[in-house]
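Ticket #4471: structure output looks truncated?

Reporter: J.K.
Steps to reproduce: submitted the chain below (351 residues) through the standard prediction queue, then opened the result file.
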Amino acid sequence: MPLRAITADEAATNLAGFDAIIDARSPAEFALDHLPGAINWPVLDDEQRRTVGTLYVQTSALEARKLGATLAARNIADHLERWIADKPRDWQPLVYCWRGGQRSGSLAWFLDQIGFRAAKLAGGYKGFRAVVLQDLATWPARFDFRVLAGRTGSGKTRLLQTLAEQGAQVLDLEGLACHRGSILGNLPGQPQPSQKQFDNRLWQALRDLDAMRPVFVESESKKIGRLQLPDALVRHMHAQGRVLRVQMPDAARVQLLLEDYGFFADDAEAFCRLLDGLVVLRGRDTVARWQALARAGDWASVFGQLMQEHYDPLYQRSMDRNYNGLLNAERVALADGGPAALQEAAAALLT
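Returned output as attached by the reporter:
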């Protein structure tokens, strides 16, 4: 029987139906982006792929295929020896590569010949990527978004997390992007994913939501760090989202920022380098004043001045431009960023 192949549309609707999703591409390709939940069994590693590609261009397709087949057979044998000993006969893996060609075909063929219910993804990751982009352009319109809007440090992220803990549906865009959404937003030890991988994460998150229930989400600009949000999602949040205006006293906001960004105290110079990015907007003298406070360890003053002189005016312009109903929006008052205030506000929103 011919090797079973499924389309990208079929895979997108039934990824959970496979016991394993195996990416046959090189480790570098896999690290950049991959199907949700995939594991990497490279048929060619990075150096082997480069060598075969060079041989194909500089010598001949035949010589490249000879070498590629030899290397692939050795690598596949190694994967089989390492990973399949405990797999039952009805184990059902989905195998893919970039275009659904020789790499995934070779690995899936061996698994099929053993007797497993292996399938190959027709069109490969490239085809799956097209489905993801198509879905991201249409799916946002399904949802009733409750948009948490509030100034920097007002507790929007903490409230979103508390809502999730209390059973609400949430779409944590900053969590998916590994970034807090400002010039200071990089998370220590958590690099941002590639744009393609972020798209995959967002696609999976939207796929798991129930369109019959409201979805809480933070107000965001079109970019979170260096990652772009889908235009359809941003448009729907702005035009159709029900805005909830989160407010917190300024002193409590400063305290929250001290807690969330306290790691900068260990490297004031890194903080100051990030502030250099604000010179165009706020001027050298203003930025130098903030940097001097940081170097002196006066973090409360730094964050207080950044709030009042940079983030609050920026936020107000963005809200005025994107959310016409903000002034009449339901108000969510937080006394501070502590658990009691957050739980009380979350409970009120869910009743």
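Triage note (M.O.): checked the attachment and the full token line is present. The domain at 4-133 is CATH 3.40.250.10 (Oxidized Rhodanese; domain 1).
Status: closed, working as intended.
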